Amino acid sequence: MFPKTPPMGFNTWNTFGENISDEMIRQTADAMVEKGLQAAGYEYLVIDDCWSKRQRDPVTDKIVPDPVKFPNGMKAVSDYVHEKGLKFGMYSCVGVRTCADYPGSFDHEFLDAATFAEYGADYLKYDYCYRPDKTNGELLYRKMSMALKASGRDILLSACNWGCDDVHRWIRSTGAGLYRSTGDIIDNFVSFRDIFLSQLDNFVYSAPGCFNDMDMLTVGMYSRGNVGSTGCTDLEYRTQFSLWCMFGIPLMLGCDVRDINDVTLKLVTNPNLLRINQDIECRPPFIARECDNNRRNAYGRVLSDNELAIMFTNLSDDRDTSLWLPFENLGLPIASGKGLRVRDAFTGEDKGVFKEYMKQALEPHDCAVYIAQIVDV
Question: How far apart are alpha carbons 219 and 242 in whole angstroms?
Answer without folding.
Answer: 11
